[in-house]
Design a protein that fits this description.
heterodimer, A: mainly alpha, MetI-like fold, 2 domains, two-stranded antiparallel sheet, 2 strands, 1% strand, flat, B: mainly alpha, 0% strand
Chain lengths: 289, 266
Protein backbone atom coordinates (compact mmCIF):
# COMPACT_ATOMS: atom_id res chain seq x y z
CA UNK A 1 0.00 0.00 0.00
CA UNK A 2 1.36 3.42 -0.93
CA UNK A 3 1.49 6.04 1.84
CA UNK A 4 -1.22 8.10 0.07
CA UNK A 5 -3.50 5.07 0.00
CA UNK A 6 -2.80 4.33 3.65
CA UNK A 7 -3.70 7.90 4.65
CA UNK A 8 -6.81 7.63 2.52
CA UNK A 9 -7.91 4.45 4.30
CA UNK A 10 -7.23 6.01 7.69
CA UNK A 11 -9.19 9.14 6.78
CA UNK A 12 -12.18 7.28 5.40
CA UNK A 13 -12.37 5.28 8.60
CA UNK A 14 -12.27 8.21 11.02
CA UNK A 15 -14.45 11.19 10.27
CA UNK A 16 -12.81 13.26 13.03
CA UNK A 17 -9.49 12.94 11.23
CA UNK A 18 -11.05 14.26 8.02
CA UNK A 19 -12.58 17.13 9.95
CA UNK A 20 -9.23 18.05 11.51
CA UNK A 21 -7.59 17.98 8.09
CA UNK A 22 -10.28 20.28 6.70
CA UNK A 23 -10.41 22.75 9.55
CA UNK A 24 -6.81 23.18 10.71
CA UNK A 25 -5.62 25.63 8.06
CA UNK A 26 -8.71 27.86 7.90
CA UNK A 27 -9.08 27.97 11.67
CA UNK A 28 -5.41 28.80 12.10
CA UNK A 29 -5.76 31.64 9.62
CA UNK A 30 -8.98 33.11 10.99
CA UNK A 31 -8.24 32.38 14.63
CA UNK A 32 -4.51 32.99 15.01
CA UNK A 33 -4.42 35.98 12.68
CA UNK A 34 -7.81 37.65 12.62
CA UNK A 35 -9.23 36.94 16.07
CA UNK A 36 -5.90 37.54 17.78
CA UNK A 37 -5.60 40.84 15.92
CA UNK A 38 -9.11 41.89 16.94
CA UNK A 39 -8.57 40.87 20.55
CA UNK A 40 -5.28 42.78 20.66
CA UNK A 41 -7.03 45.86 19.33
CA UNK A 42 -9.71 45.63 21.99
CA UNK A 43 -7.07 45.31 24.70
CA UNK A 44 -5.35 48.42 23.32
CA UNK A 45 -8.55 50.36 24.03
CA UNK A 46 -7.76 49.89 27.72
CA UNK A 47 -4.27 51.41 27.37
CA UNK A 48 -3.22 55.00 27.16
CA UNK A 49 -0.97 57.30 25.15
CA UNK A 50 1.92 59.17 26.72
CA UNK A 51 1.07 62.83 26.14
CA UNK A 52 4.75 63.79 25.74
CA UNK A 53 6.23 61.07 23.56
CA UNK A 54 3.05 60.01 21.77
CA UNK A 55 3.96 56.36 22.45
CA UNK A 56 1.32 53.85 23.53
CA UNK A 57 1.77 53.10 27.24
CA UNK A 58 0.54 49.93 28.90
CA UNK A 59 -1.38 51.48 31.73
CA UNK A 60 -4.78 49.97 32.37
CA UNK A 61 -7.60 52.47 32.31
CA UNK A 62 -11.24 52.73 31.29
CA UNK A 63 -10.82 56.42 30.39
CA UNK A 64 -11.00 55.92 26.62
CA UNK A 65 -14.12 53.83 26.81
CA UNK A 66 -15.78 56.21 29.30
CA UNK A 67 -14.90 59.13 26.99
CA UNK A 68 -16.41 57.40 23.99
CA UNK A 69 -19.59 56.30 25.77
CA UNK A 70 -20.28 59.67 27.45
CA UNK A 71 -18.84 62.15 24.93
CA UNK A 72 -21.51 64.20 23.14
CA UNK A 73 -19.51 64.18 19.89
CA UNK A 74 -19.32 60.40 19.82
CA UNK A 75 -23.03 60.02 20.57
CA UNK A 76 -24.03 62.41 17.78
CA UNK A 77 -21.69 60.84 15.25
CA UNK A 78 -22.78 57.31 16.23
CA UNK A 79 -26.45 58.16 15.75
CA UNK A 80 -25.69 59.91 12.46
CA UNK A 81 -23.66 56.93 11.21
CA UNK A 82 -26.36 54.41 12.17
CA UNK A 83 -28.97 56.63 10.51
CA UNK A 84 -26.97 56.86 7.28
CA UNK A 85 -26.24 53.10 7.26
CA UNK A 86 -29.91 52.22 7.85
CA UNK A 87 -31.15 54.64 5.21
CA UNK A 88 -28.63 53.35 2.66
CA UNK A 89 -29.73 49.78 3.41
CA UNK A 90 -33.45 50.55 3.09
CA UNK A 91 -32.96 52.49 -0.17
CA UNK A 92 -30.84 49.68 -1.62
CA UNK A 93 -33.34 46.96 -0.70
CA UNK A 94 -36.27 48.94 -2.13
CA UNK A 95 -34.41 49.43 -5.40
CA UNK A 96 -33.01 45.90 -5.52
CA UNK A 97 -36.33 44.07 -4.99
CA UNK A 98 -38.06 45.02 -8.28
CA UNK A 99 -34.86 44.63 -10.32
CA UNK A 100 -33.99 41.26 -8.82
CA UNK A 101 -37.57 40.14 -9.36
CA UNK A 102 -37.49 41.20 -13.00
CA UNK A 103 -34.13 39.44 -13.49
CA UNK A 104 -35.16 36.19 -11.82
CA UNK A 105 -38.82 35.81 -12.78
CA UNK A 106 -39.62 37.91 -15.84
CA UNK A 107 -36.53 38.07 -18.06
CA UNK A 108 -35.72 35.17 -20.37
CA UNK A 109 -32.47 33.23 -19.85
CA UNK A 110 -30.49 35.33 -22.32
CA UNK A 111 -31.66 38.72 -20.99
CA UNK A 112 -31.12 37.38 -17.49
CA UNK A 113 -27.47 36.68 -18.21
CA UNK A 114 -27.00 40.11 -19.78
CA UNK A 115 -28.60 41.80 -16.76
CA UNK A 116 -26.36 39.95 -14.30
CA UNK A 117 -23.33 41.12 -16.28
CA UNK A 118 -24.73 44.67 -16.39
CA UNK A 119 -25.16 44.69 -12.62
CA UNK A 120 -21.72 43.18 -11.94
CA UNK A 121 -19.70 45.30 -14.35
CA UNK A 122 -19.77 48.61 -12.41
CA UNK A 123 -18.14 46.76 -9.48
CA UNK A 124 -14.93 46.82 -11.49
CA UNK A 125 -14.84 50.59 -11.92
CA UNK A 126 -12.86 51.71 -8.93
CA UNK A 127 -14.86 52.62 -5.82
CA UNK A 128 -12.94 55.90 -5.65
CA UNK A 129 -13.61 56.82 -9.25
CA UNK A 130 -17.33 56.21 -8.78
CA UNK A 131 -17.48 58.29 -5.59
CA UNK A 132 -15.58 61.04 -7.37
CA UNK A 133 -17.92 60.81 -10.36
CA UNK A 134 -20.84 61.46 -8.00
CA UNK A 135 -18.98 64.49 -6.70
CA UNK A 136 -18.90 65.74 -10.27
CA UNK A 137 -22.55 64.79 -10.95
CA UNK A 138 -23.74 66.62 -7.82
CA UNK A 139 -21.56 69.72 -8.24
CA UNK A 140 -22.91 73.17 -9.07
CA UNK A 141 -23.50 73.12 -12.81
CA UNK A 142 -22.95 69.32 -12.86
CA UNK A 143 -25.08 66.70 -14.63
CA UNK A 144 -27.69 66.58 -11.86
CA UNK A 145 -28.14 70.34 -11.83
CA UNK A 146 -28.37 70.56 -15.61
CA UNK A 147 -31.10 67.89 -15.65
CA UNK A 148 -33.32 69.18 -12.82
CA UNK A 149 -32.79 72.95 -13.06
CA UNK A 150 -35.13 73.40 -16.05
CA UNK A 151 -37.86 71.93 -13.79
CA UNK A 152 -37.03 74.24 -10.91
CA UNK A 153 -35.05 71.64 -8.95
CA UNK A 154 -31.52 71.98 -7.64
CA UNK A 155 -28.63 69.70 -6.74
CA UNK A 156 -28.59 68.43 -3.14
CA UNK A 157 -24.97 69.63 -2.99
CA UNK A 158 -22.44 68.00 -0.68
CA UNK A 159 -23.66 66.75 2.68
CA UNK A 160 -25.44 63.81 4.28
CA UNK A 161 -28.01 63.37 1.45
CA UNK A 162 -25.14 63.10 -1.01
CA UNK A 163 -23.43 60.56 1.26
CA UNK A 164 -26.57 58.40 1.43
CA UNK A 165 -27.02 58.63 -2.34
CA UNK A 166 -23.41 57.77 -3.15
CA UNK A 167 -23.16 54.91 -0.65
CA UNK A 168 -26.48 53.45 -1.83
CA UNK A 169 -25.11 53.63 -5.36
CA UNK A 170 -21.80 52.00 -4.44
CA UNK A 171 -23.30 49.03 -2.58
CA UNK A 172 -26.32 48.41 -4.83
CA UNK A 173 -24.76 45.49 -6.77
CA UNK A 174 -23.87 43.76 -3.48
CA UNK A 175 -27.54 44.00 -2.48
CA UNK A 176 -29.06 43.01 -5.82
CA UNK A 177 -27.01 39.81 -6.19
CA UNK A 178 -28.03 37.97 -2.97
CA UNK A 179 -31.68 38.97 -3.45
CA UNK A 180 -31.56 37.77 -7.05
CA UNK A 181 -30.00 34.49 -5.91
CA UNK A 182 -32.71 34.17 -3.25
CA UNK A 183 -35.46 34.74 -5.83
CA UNK A 184 -33.93 32.11 -8.11
CA UNK A 185 -34.48 29.64 -5.30
CA UNK A 186 -38.22 30.43 -5.07
CA UNK A 187 -39.76 27.79 -7.36
CA UNK A 188 -42.07 29.10 -10.08
CA UNK A 189 -44.51 26.28 -9.30
CA UNK A 190 -45.12 27.86 -5.89
CA UNK A 191 -46.04 31.18 -7.46
CA UNK A 192 -48.34 29.39 -9.89
CA UNK A 193 -49.97 27.45 -7.06
CA UNK A 194 -50.59 30.69 -5.21
CA UNK A 195 -52.19 32.15 -8.34
CA UNK A 196 -54.28 29.03 -8.89
CA UNK A 197 -55.57 29.28 -5.34
CA UNK A 198 -56.87 32.72 -6.17
CA UNK A 199 -54.20 35.01 -4.77
CA UNK A 200 -53.67 38.23 -6.66
CA UNK A 201 -50.13 39.24 -7.64
CA UNK A 202 -49.68 41.51 -4.65
CA UNK A 203 -50.97 38.87 -2.23
CA UNK A 204 -48.55 36.30 -3.67
CA UNK A 205 -45.64 38.68 -3.26
CA UNK A 206 -46.49 39.57 0.33
CA UNK A 207 -47.49 36.08 1.54
CA UNK A 208 -45.25 33.79 -0.53
CA UNK A 209 -42.28 35.59 -2.07
CA UNK A 210 -41.24 37.96 0.73
CA UNK A 211 -41.30 35.37 3.56
CA UNK A 212 -39.14 33.03 1.48
CA UNK A 213 -36.89 35.92 0.58
CA UNK A 214 -36.40 37.20 4.12
CA UNK A 215 -33.05 35.46 4.76
CA UNK A 216 -31.66 36.70 1.43
CA UNK A 217 -32.78 40.27 2.17
CA UNK A 218 -31.16 40.18 5.61
CA UNK A 219 -27.98 38.69 4.17
CA UNK A 220 -27.89 41.49 1.57
CA UNK A 221 -28.49 44.12 4.24
CA UNK A 222 -25.40 42.95 6.14
CA UNK A 223 -23.27 44.09 3.21
CA UNK A 224 -24.76 47.54 2.73
CA UNK A 225 -25.08 48.18 6.47
CA UNK A 226 -21.56 47.16 7.46
CA UNK A 227 -19.91 48.76 4.43
CA UNK A 228 -21.67 52.06 5.21
CA UNK A 229 -20.95 51.80 8.92
CA UNK A 230 -17.17 51.98 8.48
CA UNK A 231 -16.89 54.25 5.50
CA UNK A 232 -14.83 57.41 5.75
CA UNK A 233 -13.67 57.99 2.17
CA UNK A 234 -17.04 58.65 0.52
CA UNK A 235 -17.88 61.04 3.36
CA UNK A 236 -14.69 62.94 2.60
CA UNK A 237 -15.46 63.12 -1.10
CA UNK A 238 -19.18 64.07 -1.10
CA UNK A 239 -20.05 64.65 2.57
CA UNK A 240 -18.98 68.28 2.94
CA UNK A 241 -18.08 68.81 6.59
CA UNK A 242 -20.06 65.83 7.96
CA UNK A 243 -18.20 63.18 9.90
CA UNK A 244 -19.00 59.52 10.41
CA UNK A 245 -17.54 56.98 12.86
CA UNK A 246 -14.94 55.93 10.29
CA UNK A 247 -13.60 59.49 10.15
CA UNK A 248 -13.18 59.61 13.94
CA UNK A 249 -11.30 56.31 13.97
CA UNK A 250 -9.18 57.41 11.01
CA UNK A 251 -8.15 60.76 12.52
CA UNK A 252 -7.23 59.13 15.81
CA UNK A 253 -5.05 56.51 14.15
CA UNK A 254 -3.43 58.97 11.78
CA UNK A 255 -3.25 62.66 12.63
CA UNK A 256 -3.92 62.36 16.37
CA UNK A 257 -1.76 59.22 16.70
CA UNK A 258 -3.95 57.88 19.50
CA UNK A 259 -4.44 54.18 18.81
CA UNK A 260 -6.07 53.45 22.21
CA UNK A 261 -8.79 56.04 21.61
CA UNK A 262 -9.24 54.85 18.00
CA UNK A 263 -9.64 51.29 19.31
CA UNK A 264 -12.22 52.48 21.84
CA UNK A 265 -14.19 54.21 19.06
CA UNK A 266 -13.90 51.09 16.90
CA UNK A 267 -15.72 49.23 19.67
CA UNK A 268 -18.90 51.09 18.64
CA UNK A 269 -19.20 49.66 15.10
CA UNK A 270 -17.98 46.27 16.36
CA UNK A 271 -20.75 46.07 18.98
CA UNK A 272 -23.37 47.32 16.51
CA UNK A 273 -22.34 44.65 13.98
CA UNK A 274 -22.33 41.90 16.61
CA UNK A 275 -25.90 42.80 17.63
CA UNK A 276 -26.86 42.93 13.93
CA UNK A 277 -25.23 39.56 13.18
CA UNK A 278 -26.86 37.95 16.22
CA UNK A 279 -30.25 39.19 15.04
CA UNK A 280 -29.50 38.00 11.49
CA UNK A 281 -28.43 34.57 12.74
CA UNK A 282 -31.79 34.00 14.40
CA UNK A 283 -33.49 34.53 11.06
CA UNK A 284 -31.26 31.95 9.39
CA UNK A 285 -29.80 34.58 7.06
CA UNK A 286 -26.19 33.66 7.72
CA UNK A 287 -26.84 30.30 6.07
CA UNK A 288 -27.01 31.99 2.70
CA UNK A 289 -24.86 35.05 2.88
CA UNK B 1 -49.21 34.07 -9.90
CA UNK B 2 -49.59 35.51 -13.36
CA UNK B 3 -48.09 38.91 -13.83
CA UNK B 4 -50.29 41.25 -15.81
CA UNK B 5 -48.65 42.90 -18.79
CA UNK B 6 -48.81 46.23 -16.92
CA UNK B 7 -46.85 44.73 -14.02
CA UNK B 8 -44.26 43.35 -16.43
CA UNK B 9 -43.97 46.71 -18.12
CA UNK B 10 -43.58 48.53 -14.78
CA UNK B 11 -40.86 46.09 -13.68
CA UNK B 12 -39.06 46.46 -17.00
CA UNK B 13 -39.23 50.24 -16.77
CA UNK B 14 -37.92 50.31 -13.19
CA UNK B 15 -35.06 47.98 -14.17
CA UNK B 16 -34.16 50.14 -17.16
CA UNK B 17 -34.29 53.33 -15.10
CA UNK B 18 -32.08 51.95 -12.34
CA UNK B 19 -29.58 50.60 -14.84
CA UNK B 20 -29.53 54.05 -16.43
CA UNK B 21 -28.73 55.60 -13.03
CA UNK B 22 -26.08 52.91 -12.43
CA UNK B 23 -24.36 53.78 -15.67
CA UNK B 24 -24.81 57.56 -15.46
CA UNK B 25 -21.71 58.22 -13.31
CA UNK B 26 -19.74 55.74 -15.41
CA UNK B 27 -20.84 57.70 -18.48
CA UNK B 28 -19.57 60.89 -16.87
CA UNK B 29 -16.22 59.15 -16.29
CA UNK B 30 -16.13 57.95 -19.91
CA UNK B 31 -16.85 61.43 -21.28
CA UNK B 32 -14.25 62.92 -18.96
CA UNK B 33 -11.57 60.59 -20.20
CA UNK B 34 -11.86 62.45 -23.53
CA UNK B 35 -12.32 65.93 -22.02
CA UNK B 36 -9.82 68.74 -22.53
CA UNK B 37 -10.54 69.86 -18.96
CA UNK B 38 -8.02 68.60 -16.41
CA UNK B 39 -10.59 68.27 -13.62
CA UNK B 40 -14.02 66.64 -13.74
CA UNK B 41 -15.84 69.75 -15.04
CA UNK B 42 -19.23 69.51 -16.70
CA UNK B 43 -19.99 69.95 -19.52
CA UNK B 44 -16.56 69.20 -21.03
CA UNK B 45 -15.09 72.24 -22.80
CA UNK B 46 -13.69 70.12 -25.67
CA UNK B 47 -12.48 66.66 -26.60
CA UNK B 48 -9.03 65.12 -26.93
CA UNK B 49 -7.31 61.73 -27.09
CA UNK B 50 -4.32 63.00 -25.15
CA UNK B 51 -5.21 61.25 -21.86
CA UNK B 52 -5.68 57.87 -23.52
CA UNK B 53 -2.20 58.12 -24.99
CA UNK B 54 -0.67 59.30 -21.73
CA UNK B 55 -2.39 56.61 -19.65
CA UNK B 56 -0.61 53.83 -21.57
CA UNK B 57 2.74 55.50 -20.98
CA UNK B 58 2.11 56.25 -17.30
CA UNK B 59 4.66 54.10 -15.47
CA UNK B 60 3.15 54.74 -12.02
CA UNK B 61 -0.29 53.58 -13.10
CA UNK B 62 0.99 50.50 -14.93
CA UNK B 63 3.14 49.46 -11.99
CA UNK B 64 0.21 49.96 -9.62
CA UNK B 65 -1.96 47.72 -11.81
CA UNK B 66 0.79 45.08 -11.75
CA UNK B 67 1.02 45.23 -7.96
CA UNK B 68 -2.75 45.00 -7.57
CA UNK B 69 -2.99 42.00 -9.89
CA UNK B 70 -0.21 40.25 -7.97
CA UNK B 71 -1.94 40.88 -4.62
CA UNK B 72 -5.39 39.92 -5.91
CA UNK B 73 -4.02 36.66 -7.38
CA UNK B 74 -2.31 35.80 -4.09
CA UNK B 75 -5.35 36.61 -1.99
CA UNK B 76 -7.66 34.72 -4.37
CA UNK B 77 -5.45 31.61 -4.36
CA UNK B 78 -5.37 31.51 -0.55
CA UNK B 79 -9.09 32.15 -0.19
CA UNK B 80 -9.92 29.45 -2.77
CA UNK B 81 -8.09 26.85 -0.69
CA UNK B 82 -9.29 28.01 2.74
CA UNK B 83 -12.83 28.81 1.62
CA UNK B 84 -13.29 25.38 0.05
CA UNK B 85 -11.93 23.59 3.13
CA UNK B 86 -14.28 25.42 5.52
CA UNK B 87 -17.25 24.99 3.20
CA UNK B 88 -16.73 21.22 2.97
CA UNK B 89 -16.27 20.98 6.75
CA UNK B 90 -19.41 22.97 7.53
CA UNK B 91 -21.61 21.36 4.88
CA UNK B 92 -20.62 17.71 5.28
CA UNK B 93 -20.01 17.42 9.02
CA UNK B 94 -21.91 18.17 12.22
CA UNK B 95 -19.63 19.14 15.06
CA UNK B 96 -19.47 21.19 18.22
CA UNK B 97 -18.73 24.86 17.51
CA UNK B 98 -20.01 24.74 13.95
CA UNK B 99 -21.87 28.04 14.41
CA UNK B 100 -18.76 29.72 15.76
CA UNK B 101 -16.77 28.66 12.71
CA UNK B 102 -19.39 30.02 10.33
CA UNK B 103 -19.46 33.30 12.27
CA UNK B 104 -15.65 33.41 12.08
CA UNK B 105 -15.77 33.20 8.28
CA UNK B 106 -18.31 36.02 7.99
CA UNK B 107 -16.80 38.34 10.58
CA UNK B 108 -13.97 39.83 8.45
CA UNK B 109 -16.44 41.04 5.82
CA UNK B 110 -19.17 42.00 8.31
CA UNK B 111 -16.93 44.22 10.42
CA UNK B 112 -16.15 47.60 8.85
CA UNK B 113 -12.92 47.70 6.82
CA UNK B 114 -11.36 50.29 9.05
CA UNK B 115 -11.68 47.97 12.08
CA UNK B 116 -10.07 45.08 10.20
CA UNK B 117 -7.47 47.52 8.90
CA UNK B 118 -6.27 48.92 12.21
CA UNK B 119 -6.53 45.54 13.94
CA UNK B 120 -4.26 43.89 11.35
CA UNK B 121 -1.93 46.90 11.22
CA UNK B 122 -1.48 46.66 14.99
CA UNK B 123 -1.06 42.86 14.75
CA UNK B 124 1.63 42.99 12.06
CA UNK B 125 3.62 45.83 13.57
CA UNK B 126 3.50 45.28 17.30
CA UNK B 127 2.59 41.61 17.83
CA UNK B 128 4.46 39.60 15.21
CA UNK B 129 6.73 42.40 14.03
CA UNK B 130 6.77 41.90 10.25
CA UNK B 131 7.46 44.68 7.78
CA UNK B 132 4.34 45.96 6.03
CA UNK B 133 4.38 45.24 2.31
CA UNK B 134 2.84 43.09 -0.40
CA UNK B 135 2.86 40.05 1.87
CA UNK B 136 0.85 41.73 4.63
CA UNK B 137 -1.69 43.06 2.11
CA UNK B 138 -2.19 39.55 0.69
CA UNK B 139 -2.75 38.14 4.20
CA UNK B 140 -5.25 40.91 5.00
CA UNK B 141 -7.14 40.58 1.72
CA UNK B 142 -7.29 36.78 1.89
CA UNK B 143 -8.89 37.09 5.34
CA UNK B 144 -11.97 38.88 4.02
CA UNK B 145 -12.02 37.12 0.60
CA UNK B 146 -12.50 33.64 2.15
CA UNK B 147 -16.20 34.33 2.61
CA UNK B 148 -16.95 34.83 -1.11
CA UNK B 149 -15.45 31.45 -2.03
CA UNK B 150 -17.07 29.86 1.01
CA UNK B 151 -20.53 31.10 0.01
CA UNK B 152 -20.31 29.84 -3.55
CA UNK B 153 -18.87 26.46 -2.60
CA UNK B 154 -21.28 25.77 0.26
CA UNK B 155 -24.27 26.65 -1.94
CA UNK B 156 -23.00 24.19 -4.56
CA UNK B 157 -22.34 21.43 -2.01
CA UNK B 158 -25.84 21.85 -0.65
CA UNK B 159 -27.27 21.38 -4.14
CA UNK B 160 -25.15 18.43 -5.26
CA UNK B 161 -25.61 16.25 -2.17
CA UNK B 162 -23.36 13.32 -1.25
CA UNK B 163 -24.74 10.46 -3.35
CA UNK B 164 -22.09 10.67 -6.11
CA UNK B 165 -19.28 10.73 -3.56
CA UNK B 166 -20.77 7.73 -1.78
CA UNK B 167 -21.07 5.88 -5.08
CA UNK B 168 -17.42 6.67 -5.81
CA UNK B 169 -16.37 5.32 -2.40
CA UNK B 170 -18.50 2.19 -2.87
CA UNK B 171 -16.75 1.55 -6.15
CA UNK B 172 -13.45 1.53 -4.29
CA UNK B 173 -12.06 5.02 -4.88
CA UNK B 174 -10.02 6.48 -2.01
CA UNK B 175 -10.76 9.95 -0.71
CA UNK B 176 -8.11 11.63 -2.92
CA UNK B 177 -9.47 10.01 -6.07
CA UNK B 178 -13.03 10.85 -5.08
CA UNK B 179 -12.10 14.48 -4.50
CA UNK B 180 -10.16 14.73 -7.78
CA UNK B 181 -12.69 12.96 -10.01
CA UNK B 182 -16.04 13.62 -8.31
CA UNK B 183 -16.11 16.50 -5.82
CA UNK B 184 -13.77 18.92 -7.59
CA UNK B 185 -15.43 18.80 -11.03
CA UNK B 186 -18.76 19.49 -9.34
CA UNK B 187 -17.29 22.52 -7.61
CA UNK B 188 -15.37 23.95 -10.55
CA UNK B 189 -17.78 26.66 -11.69
CA UNK B 190 -18.61 27.63 -8.09
CA UNK B 191 -14.89 28.05 -7.49
CA UNK B 192 -14.60 30.23 -10.58
CA UNK B 193 -17.49 32.46 -9.53
CA UNK B 194 -16.20 32.75 -5.94
CA UNK B 195 -12.64 33.30 -7.10
CA UNK B 196 -13.71 36.03 -9.48
CA UNK B 197 -15.59 37.85 -6.75
CA UNK B 198 -12.60 37.48 -4.40
CA UNK B 199 -10.30 38.89 -7.09
CA UNK B 200 -12.61 41.87 -7.68
CA UNK B 201 -12.96 42.50 -3.95
CA UNK B 202 -9.21 42.51 -3.43
CA UNK B 203 -8.44 44.50 -6.60
CA UNK B 204 -10.65 47.43 -5.55
CA UNK B 205 -10.03 47.40 -1.80
CA UNK B 206 -8.58 50.59 -0.35
CA UNK B 207 -9.39 50.89 3.36
CA UNK B 208 -7.76 47.70 4.68
CA UNK B 209 -5.01 48.19 2.10
CA UNK B 210 -4.18 51.68 3.40
CA UNK B 211 -3.47 50.24 6.84
CA UNK B 212 -1.53 47.14 5.76
CA UNK B 213 0.49 48.50 2.84
CA UNK B 214 3.30 50.37 4.56
CA UNK B 215 4.92 53.18 2.63
CA UNK B 216 6.64 51.38 -0.24
CA UNK B 217 3.73 49.59 -1.91
CA UNK B 218 1.28 51.33 -4.25
CA UNK B 219 -1.77 49.34 -5.31
CA UNK B 220 -4.06 50.70 -8.00
CA UNK B 221 -6.68 52.10 -5.56
CA UNK B 222 -3.90 53.80 -3.58
CA UNK B 223 -2.45 55.24 -6.80
CA UNK B 224 -5.90 56.48 -7.81
CA UNK B 225 -6.42 58.03 -4.38
CA UNK B 226 -3.10 59.86 -4.69
CA UNK B 227 -3.79 61.10 -8.21
CA UNK B 228 -7.54 61.76 -8.28
CA UNK B 229 -7.16 65.29 -6.98
CA UNK B 230 -4.12 66.23 -9.08
CA UNK B 231 -5.19 68.32 -12.08
CA UNK B 232 -3.10 66.60 -14.76
CA UNK B 233 -3.68 63.09 -13.45
CA UNK B 234 -7.46 63.06 -12.90
CA UNK B 235 -8.30 62.41 -16.60
CA UNK B 236 -5.77 59.55 -16.69
CA UNK B 237 -7.57 58.02 -13.70
CA UNK B 238 -10.79 58.22 -15.74
CA UNK B 239 -9.12 56.39 -18.66
CA UNK B 240 -7.97 53.59 -16.36
CA UNK B 241 -11.42 53.25 -14.77
CA UNK B 242 -13.03 52.96 -18.21
CA UNK B 243 -10.50 50.33 -19.28
CA UNK B 244 -11.05 48.26 -16.13
CA UNK B 245 -14.81 48.17 -16.70
CA UNK B 246 -14.29 47.22 -20.34
CA UNK B 247 -11.78 44.46 -19.53
CA UNK B 248 -13.96 43.08 -16.71
CA UNK B 249 -16.63 42.04 -19.22
CA UNK B 250 -14.53 39.05 -20.30
CA UNK B 251 -14.18 37.18 -16.97
CA UNK B 252 -17.72 38.07 -15.83
CA UNK B 253 -19.23 36.83 -19.08
CA UNK B 254 -17.12 33.68 -18.95
CA UNK B 255 -18.23 32.90 -15.40
CA UNK B 256 -21.85 33.43 -16.40
CA UNK B 257 -21.50 31.10 -19.38
CA UNK B 258 -19.89 28.40 -17.27
CA UNK B 259 -22.55 28.71 -14.58
CA UNK B 260 -25.21 28.52 -17.30
CA UNK B 261 -23.64 25.42 -18.86
CA UNK B 262 -23.48 23.84 -15.40
CA UNK B 263 -27.14 24.49 -14.77
CA UNK B 264 -28.08 23.00 -18.14
CA UNK B 265 -26.29 19.79 -17.13
CA UNK B 266 -28.19 19.33 -13.88
Amino acid sequence: MTPARRISVFLSRFSWARLILLLTAPLFWLGAVYIVALAALLVTALWTVDSFTGEVRIEWTFDNIVDVVTGALYQTVTLRTIGVALLVTVVDILIALPIAFFMAKVAGPRLQRILVVAVLMPLWASYLVKAYAWRSVLSEGGVWASVVEPFGGQTPGYGLPAVVLTLAYLWLPYVILPIYAGLERVPNSLLEASGDLGAKTWRTIVSVVLPMLKPAIIAASIFSFSLSLGDYITVNIVGGASQMLGNLVYTNVGAANNLPLAAAIALIPISIMIVYLAAARRSGALENL
Amino acid sequence: MRLSSTARAVLATVTTLVLAVIYLPLGVVLVNSFSTSTTLTWPPPGFTLEWWGRAFRNVGALEAIGTSVQIALGATAISLVLGTLVAIALQRYRFFGRDVVSLLVILPIALPGIVTGIALNNFFRTIIDVRLGIFTIIVAHATFCIVTVFNNVIARLRRTGTSLEEASADLGAGIWTTFRLVTFPQLRSALLAGGLLAFALSFDEIIVTTFTAGSGVTTLPIWIFENLFRPNQAPIVSVIAVMLVAVSVVPIWLAQRLAGADQAQH
